[in-house]
Amino acid sequence: MNRPAHESDERDRADMLRLASGHDAALNELIERHSPKLFNYLVRSLQNEADAADLAQETFARVYHNRSKFDAELKFSTWLYSIASNLVRTKFRHLSRHPELSLEAANPQSDTEFRETIPAEQPTPSEALQNSESSDAVRRAIADLPEELRTPLILSEYEELSHSEIGNILNCSPKAVETRLYRARKQLREALTKWLQ
Question: From the CA atom positions of the chain, what is the Rg in Å?
């Protein structure tokens, strides 16, 4: 284990012990260390910055409310991502029961997409490059993956977590994570055939 990661784990454990014993300021240190990566994970999972910000706050609220239940034998980041992943699953269940209007949906009155009725801002050259068709295609392909494949892929590729850590977060074996990653990558290859040629 590399030294900075080990030291970070020890700081996390110490802050959680302080938090559990009534030092609420320890939560601020945990938020400062973990919120940027957590937010990025949630944005990739939800494809929506506002929802990601809401779930990041909810994740840390649950850390606070469950502070006495933290198992100091586990890594704090694994526990944090477990909480966040459960909130993402709940959000997707809610969205499947209460669908929201998509900007890509057709407007029945004008037979155009709602997105086309929103005034476009002129992107800078770097934004135009960032929003290229291929990166949009990759984002769409990842968003279209089933949640059981998308979450381990994001945790592996973007958060760089090991199969074991992902298994702890998703309550499955490292072998199951490996299988899900294989299926996710296979589906991505099929969806992105045009861009891979």
Answer: 19
pTM here is 0.67
Write the DSSP symbol of residue 103.
Answer: T
User: Which two tokens mark 17?
Assistant: 């012990």
Contacts of 1 (CB under 8 A, 6+ apart): none
**For the chain, percent helix, then strand, then coil, each to nearest 5?**
75, 0, 25
Compute the half-sphere exposure of residue 178: CA atoms within 13 Å on the CB side of its CA.
4
Q: What is the pLDDT along the chain (197 residues), one digit of tens a residue?
A: 455 667 888 999 999 999 999 999 999 999 999 999 999 999 988 888 999 999 999 999 999 999 999 988 889 999 999 999 999 988 888 766 766 544 444 444 445 444 444 444 555 554 555 456 667 777 888 888 998 999 999 999 888 899 999 999 999 999 999 999 999 999 988 888 876 65
Cα–Cα distances in Å, from 8 out to 5, 13, 46? 5, 9, 27
8 A C-beta contact, residue 60 and residue 27: yes
Give CA angle at 121 (115, 122), nearest 5°.
125
Helix 25-46 / helix 147-157 crossing angle, nearest 10 deg = 120
